[in-house]
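Example 3.
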Amino acid sequence: MAQVEARDHGLHGHAAPAQAGAHAQGQQHPIKLYLVVWGWLFILSACSYAVDYFALQGMLRWSLILIFMMLKAGLIVAVFMHMAWERLALAYAIIVPPLVILVFVAIMVVESRYTEITRVLSFGAGQ
Amino acid sequence: MAETTLGHADQTAPRPPGLRGFVADWSSDQRAFKGVSWGKAMMWIFLLSDTFIFGCFLLSYMTARMSTVVPWPNPSEVFALHLFGQDIPLILIAIMTFVLISSSGTMAMAVNFGYRRDRRKTAILMLLTAALGATFVGMQAFEWTKLITEGVRPWENPWGAAQFGSTFFMITGFHGTHVTIGVIFLLIVARKVWRGDYETGARGFFTSRRGQYESVEIMGLYWHFVDLVWVFIFAFFYLW
């Protein structure tokens, strides 16, 4: 119902019909979709806060943090940023390159372990 | 009209969907991004480069935290607030997260109403987004003030590894700067929407080009990205 009303507004709104035609292809989804995603983002944030509030530790803590983080990031990129409706040519160009950062992470994990060992060996534990 | 043709890829011939479409779009001499204007494609590519910047920040934080032999301060205690007679862990950061997510929600709806050419609702939702963004920056300023008075510096802090301060100020500082710039741009675009610049075809003060309602979506992409970065900062810096 609200949608029909909004469309109506739209008909009265445009001054330049030629330009309006160009925009007819723009992203149009029901408002409800955004509200649902908004709700899920709230729930997921509350869950990740709960992980800290209840002081979960170890692998459980880290895996939960990562799961909630990836779910939130996925919802934002896919729905709010409309990536789900873009062609794969754009999606791959934007989403694949950041995965290279994971290689960088692996390199730096090895490097920082080495630095830590060197520090312990040279200066003893605790500086 | 020439401008609109330049701005939008032609969508006359049907393109194959899915993986075949990906190969077809990227092969031969042609525009790779069908149905995406140059403005939107460039915003995405800018956001990609920004991803690498924040990725490197979080990486340097990881390296510092993993390689130090001094214990890392517990963020759960550092960012606790004394409210209602008890210490609540990380509460300020949780509120900041909810504020930023809400601003992302209002922004997404602003984009939607923009494409429906509902000027009033678009402008109001964008102003609401800007207000929530400003609230976020204000809370961050409060958080910085609190930590600085407690003795956190980029080179030392009372609780443990010195790198805590440097990574904290660098990462949240850069993110806060992004939010601040976003708020300024939101206000500029909201004013244009309110005045009806995108309908009368008024030329922009900077580029002298006619704007379109797509500008609202491009602005939205930036704003959602700021929220996206916060998701990662929240997970890695505050919760880890």
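Chain B has one domain: 32-239. Chain B has nine helices and two strands.
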